[in-house]
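# nightly structure sweep
# worker-07 picked up a monomer target from the shared queue
# config: single-sequence mode, recycle default, output format = structure tokens
# input follows
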Amino acid sequence: METNDQLITELIRLAFAEDVGDGDHTTLSTIPAEARGRQRLIIKEEGILAGVDVARRVFEYFDPELKMTVYMTDGTHVKPGDVAFEVEGSVRSLLQTERTMLNIMQRMSGIATTTARYQERLKGLDTKVLDTRKTTPGMRLLEKEAVKIGGGTNHRIGLFDMILIKDNHVDFAGGIPEAVKRAKEYCRAKGKDLKIEVEVRNEDEIRQALEAGVDRIMLDNFTPERTREAVKLIGGRTEIESSGGITIDTLRAYGECGVDYISVGALTHSVKGLDMSFKAV
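# output follows
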């Protein structure tokens, strides 16, 4: 299994492979090899900055001689006209790294900004907003990092770091008791220490999950009214997560029911990138 660091390096490699190909012929034909210059990242929209550390890795991967001067770090609240950083070095390298860096930073900053907006709606409550696995293939680690930068909390990273028994697992396994029993036996046999979460659809399944002894119950597509009843039924015996069609407008109503977490796919699956540009000085 590859480490997070290796996965990010591979993402950067693939990004340049698809963008540069056998060469940036526009830059190679118009810019002398010895030309040196400087560009700055200019913010064009208010939001939360994210991806500065990854941008540094992009520049270092392509050309270790590029020098980056950072003025604003990840998590900074930015506004139009702010300069996040400047990069100095080979003009050819600056031009060839521009789009890859911007693609990453705009998306990460958009996710961080959206997450901050959602978490703000829960201000004063103990409820935390969670991300999901509804991420861009290959960019999951960066998108989940952006969620954290925006003040949100990561759910499981992938299929390997938590057992989440969803409705299809339950139906194929023959019910919640059997599914949880098999999951616990599997963990013992494999020497795995994994939390077990079960998605439930009604009060009967809540009772089954509690009796089976799970670490977290996911209330799937419950209304706020049903959620409030479920929280009373669970009575603090396990963590509670609300999920399914919850929007920024309905978020607080669920939080006020007393759930621990609310998972929101919209943090990553359809977010708008934060507007910014990389301009020559």
